[in-house]
Amino acid sequence: MLTIKKLTKAHAGRTLFAEAEMVVNWGERIALVGPNGAGKSTLFRMILGEDAPDEGEIQRDEYAAIGYLPQEAGDPSDRTVLEIAMSITPELGQAIRTMAECEAKGDHASDAYAHAVDTFTAHDGYRLEPKAKRILKGLAFKDSDFSRPAREMSGGWIMRAHLAQLLVAEPDLLMLDEPTNHLDLMSLLWLRRYLKNYPGAILMISHDRDFMDELVETVYDIENAQLVRYTGNYSAFLELKDQRYELMLAAWRNQQREIAHFEAFIERFRSVASKAAQVQSRIKQLEKIKRIEKPRPARKVFKFIFPQPPRSTQRVIELEHVSQSYGSHRVYSDLNLLVERGQRIVLVGPNGAGKSTLLKILAGVIPIDGGKRTPGTTTRIGYFSQMRAENLTPNLTVLEEIMKADPELREEEARGVLGSFLFRRLDVEKRVEVLSGGEKSRLSLVKFLVNPPNLLLMDEPTTHLDLMSVEALSQALKRYEGTLVFISHDVHFIRSLAEKTLHINQGLLTPYAGGYDYYLEKSGLMDAELAMDL
Length: 534
Prior knowledge:
alpha/beta
């Protein structure tokens, strides 16, 4: 379906690819991995024809349809959610728009309406509409959302509508750039199940380890400007990559010994006339050796012993008969919750159920309409929200911001932990005010870790992190001795940390005295997943 041959590409003076090669077969599931800035998105653009390689070629099957989901949605114009989902071709999209405009005016007799209906029928629109609605519901849209203009919604919801459009179209090659970024946990599980049965090939960039483990069968790793192919899912890739490094390191060491042996012989007998022929032979042998570059070890998770918070009371925080509304929309009524010392609670439930609102109530960042919120006498709260930049000082550098958060932190330790969260050597000298949204998010996260409170409330903390940074965060929080309440759609992260699950839906809290898998089993969701897999 897709063949990349001897691809070379440089960007900003750096070689991203040097004679790299890759093959995508029909129906294959592939993950493209590599550190931030390695060239993953650039490769996607070249496959799509939006960028050109410096050398080499990309061959696409002329009959293969390609669909692409970018990280950010474009302008939705005035189209409704359902119109976006069904606009699998420009002609069908225009026909749907024309039909809607004519029907709104009661104009069913015009040539424009008749032509639009013919186009709609020719594209099998009457079959596509129920399919589009089913997919939209799987992505957490309500029936009432179908006719809403997409421009009234957030960027995340617009992305879901475009994802639905791709799933309705079913291209032969589905290219997904971070498809789980804008999904809540339930929508992510639905998408994962749906893609397991997807008829076409899938090529994805993702920072969600569990998502890749469930779906992919091949991993291409961008390493030293090459595309290195591994068979298996992401976890298998990690093991194979370590094995490959050990083999390459052994080969390099053997060659170094051979080279040293030749060089020692040449140096020893260079001036001995009787050995001249042998010396020349060794020199020629040395010149013919194709030098193996010393392999670089894979990036490892940075291990740092973070300071522990002061011990809290047993009752960390309690909510009693709390009510909360946004305008006429009642989110909670008679809400009761006790969080106790050392608990690790994950909040799960559909989008709009009130998970983020509950974190805000616990954090005290929004006033409650009624009831009582009682923190423990020694409770110190840290709230890591989706609006991360509020607690940063714009005129400080990244390094200064972290050193200020914990004056006892040594500079080399601060640089190490910043590096683990994607701040490179020069990045730590940047001023906070020039950082991107993702960089500010990561910096806020590091601030929490180097000076943690004893109640940590975290809303989607893994957003903007790569896989190694997610693992570093997970390991840091495993060693954290305080109390943790968090929201995440990263299943691997949830499995690593959650010891109690709180399901939220329509203002009702259902506790499960176990982690993610326990919740799946007791709620019946595991049976639903197994049924979908059959």
